[in-house]
Specification:
The protein is mostly helical. It has a domain of 28 residues. The longest helix has 48 residues. Keywords: Membrane, Transmembrane, Transmembrane helix.
Length: 66
């Protein structure tokens, strides 16, 4: 049996409500995107640093620094 309609069950969103919801959602999506992008960039930088240190170590152990 469906609930009987009351003033609280028949609420509608105004255009301003919809705009506020979409603005908040868009802001969250943008923040998450740039946060993830930043994590990815720092991961690549960290891997490049580790790779550079390993390359110097390998070069030093095979030919040495003269």
């Amino acid at each position: 049996m469906p609930p009987t309609p009351t003033p609280n069950n028949n609420r509608l969103l105004t255009d301003e409500d919809v705009q506020a919801i979409t603005d908040a959602l868009e802001q969250r999506v943008v923040e998450r995107f740039y946060g993830d992008l930043g994590k990815g960039v720092w991961t690549l930088v960290w891997r490049a640093i580790v790779l550079g240190i390993l390359a110097v170590a390998v070069y030093g152990s095979t030919k040495g620094f003269k």
